[in-house]
């Protein structure tokens, strides 16, 4: 079964392996398969589910709502997000304005079939809306009982500090950040993690397998596998391109004996690695078939010894992305419409 960890400086516990439905629900797989996968996740001990209004232009939230319909709400932790365009893409259908946040939370709750979400997250930083307006809107969402806690995604250390200060002044908790993090993508370690540790903010990390590259299925000098994420232009293809260089793929193949020595599969090694970071509360995983989760959840509770961690670093030497400045450019400087 999956272990649980506290999320930030709060009393909320989440499953350290959290199910995310970014590129699957409402897009890659039909609803019946998606619902079956959610139920398989629950059977494996996952209680925490992460989605966003923008995923499949609101369809992913609706599928998750169907999957959890009729279940005991208090036994689940449901997360969603706001920022990216939804609906027809009008001038106020995006961003973190008070108008968009209030309309978005009501839409998300309706699609999810719940009165509240456990965590409501700013999907990116909005440079065009005063931060005071955004955080006041989140405070009011919390006071209305529509969200229990507030989090963010891909904010810089400076943005986290400013947001946390306003949240404290307004009387609510900013408890999480959702960045990309994996053996190959370590850009949060230099600034974001130390700041988060100071402020009592946890990381909920996405792409712990580097868009599937750390599974080892992408081979140097070979075409990408048919039907893989690298071939899906509607979802992950754009994100995976930076990892598909031969020198990266060759380094990943050097992880196979490390995983074997640890008694783990490659995906298990990748997920266990991010969970070794004490500032990481949860690793987000997705699945298009229920059986994929049976392997993934075995990474929960795994402790990697110092020799294994050193072997991982040696195998990936020279191909790791660790420049903290990469975080600065994640949030668009202007809203997407």
From TrEMBL:
<keyword id="KW-0521">NADP</keyword>
<keyword id="KW-0560">Oxidoreductase</keyword>
<dbReference type="InterPro" id="IPR023210">
    <property type="entry name" value="NADP_OxRdtase_dom"/>
</dbReference>
<dbReference type="GO" id="GO:0016491">
    <property type="term" value="F:oxidoreductase activity"/>
</dbReference>
<comment type="similarity">
    <text>Belongs to the shaker potassium channel beta subunit family.</text>
</comment>
<dbReference type="InterPro" id="IPR036812">
    <property type="entry name" value="NAD(P)_OxRdtase_dom_sf"/>
</dbReference>
<dbReference type="GO" id="GO:0005829">
    <property type="term" value="C:cytosol"/>
</dbReference>
<protein>
    <submittedName>
        <fullName>Aldo/keto reductase</fullName>
    </submittedName>
</protein>
<feature type="domain" description="NADP-dependent oxidoreductase">
    <location>
        <begin position="16"/>
        <end position="315"/>
    </location>
</feature>
<dbReference type="InterPro" id="IPR005399">
    <property type="entry name" value="K_chnl_volt-dep_bsu_KCNAB-rel"/>
</dbReference>
<dbReference type="Pfam" id="PF00248">
    <property type="entry name" value="Aldo_ket_red"/>
</dbReference>
């Amino acid at each position: 079964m999956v272990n649980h960890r506290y999320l930030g400086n709060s009393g909320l516990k989440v499953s350290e392996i959290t199910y995310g439905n970014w590129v699957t629900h409402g897009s890659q797989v039909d609803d019946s398969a998606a619902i079956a996968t959610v139920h398989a996740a629950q059977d494996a001990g996952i209680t925490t589910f992460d989605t966003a209004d923008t995923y499949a232009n609101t369809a992913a939230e609706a599928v998750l709502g169907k999957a959890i319909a009729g279940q005991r709400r208090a036994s689940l932790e449901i997360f969603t997000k706001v920022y990216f365009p939804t609906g027809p893409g009008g001038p106020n259908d995006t961003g973190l304005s008070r108008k968009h946040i209030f309309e978005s939370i009501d839409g998300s709750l309706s699609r999810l079939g719940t009165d509240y979400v456990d965590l409501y997250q700013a999907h990116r930083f909005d440079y065009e809306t005063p931060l005071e307006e955004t955080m006041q809107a989140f405070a009011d969402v919390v006071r209305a009982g529509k969200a229990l806690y507030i989090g963010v995604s891909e904010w810089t250390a400076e943005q986290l500090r400013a947001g946390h200060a306003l949240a404290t002044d307004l009387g609510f908790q900013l408890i999480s950040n959702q960045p990309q993090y994996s053996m190959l993508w370590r850009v949060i370690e230099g600034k974001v993690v130390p700041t988060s540790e100071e402020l009592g903010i946890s990381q909920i990390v996405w792409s712990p397998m580097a868009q599937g590259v750390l599974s080892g299925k992408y081979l140097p000098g070979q075409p990408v596998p048919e039907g893989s994420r690298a071939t899906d232009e509607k979802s992950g293809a754009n994100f995976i391109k930076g990892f598909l260089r031969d020198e990266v793929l060759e380094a990943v193949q050097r992880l196979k004996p490390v995983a074997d020595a640890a008694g783990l599969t490659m995906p298990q090694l990748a997920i266990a690695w991010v969970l070794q970071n004490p500032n990481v509360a949860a690793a987000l995983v997705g699945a298009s078939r229920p059986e994929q989760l049976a392997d993934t959840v075995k990474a929960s509770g795994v402790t990697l010894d110092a020799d294994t961690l050193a072997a991982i670093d040696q195998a990936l030497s020279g191909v790791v992305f660790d420049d903290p400045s990469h975080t600065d450019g994640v949030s668009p400087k202007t809203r997407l419409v």
